[in-house]
Amino acid sequence: MIDYKGKVVLITGGARGFGAEFARGFAGRGATVVIGDINTELGEATVAEISRGGSACHFLSLDVRSDIDWAAAVDYCVSEVGGLDVVINNAGVEISELYIDTTPQACRDLFDINLVGTMLGIKHAFLAMQPGGASGRGGAILNLASVAGLSSTPGLAAYSASKAGVISLTKLAATEAGTFDYGVRANCLCPSLFNTDMGRKLLNDFPGLGLGESVEAVKEGLIARIPVGRFGELSDVVNAALYLCSEEASFINGVALPVDGGMSGAG
Ligand SMILES: NC(=O)c1ccc[n+]([C@@H]2O[C@H](COP(=O)([O-])OP(=O)(O)OC[C@H]3O[C@@H](n4cnc5c(N)ncnc54)[C@H](O)[C@@H]3O)[C@@H](O)[C@H]2O)c1
Fold this sequence. Notes:
alpha/beta, Rossmann fold, 8 helices, 7 strands, globular, binds nicotinamide-adenine-dinucleotide
């Protein structure tokens, strides 16, 4: 069983959804987890729930778009919690709209969180984890991309472009970390549609865009495209994360791992 005792894991967007489930999963394996999110109320509630189970979990206010917030978050991990071993760049947003309805500001806002936020997360992880950095013991970065970054779904242009960008940022991070011997691996996950606030919103948006007659019809169409014949559970994504960030995956670097029941491979 993969063990994270003695490791400090910083998870952005950990107040709910995948992020909260990552927090439960890593804390359950012995890690000290730090949740960084803009939603303080929900983030503190998630931390309280995990802490009640006896695990070490902390909340801090972090807007991933802010270089200053990132510096403070990493400083908190190192000085208050004992280091930084894993950064999960999970915070993200989506917009579902057709090209013909695109508004520049909505796209810029999305790119700011999904791309600039991820870039800053990589930057501060490198600064802290590299030899001589504030933590200085290497580590692992996991970014949240999406199958949308691998394939084409109408209505998701800005979101898909941002997730294709996250895949590119991940490969580049793995390469740059190797070039400068930071002792850091970087990988990303490409999940299909999951039952979170974001996943439910996406499903509900599709019929309104003319992409399916009803939510039920969209769901049936999606399941028909998944070779294992079911939607994924959040635990499927957490298990992939626990593996990729562990020593067991020490030779896995720069990959974009679909967690999609085979959907992207089926074309
Ligand atoms: N749910 C899916 O079906 C799915 C599929 C593929 C990829 N993803 C990706 O997984 C990640 C998590 O998705 P989710 O479904 O849990 O989303 P969610 O909307 O349920 O949760 C996102 C979290 O990010 C936080 N957040 C938003 N903006 C932030 C910011 N600027 N700084 C810090 N935190 C911020 C929110 O407060 C929230 O807690 C996202 O990157 C998403 O694109 C989700």
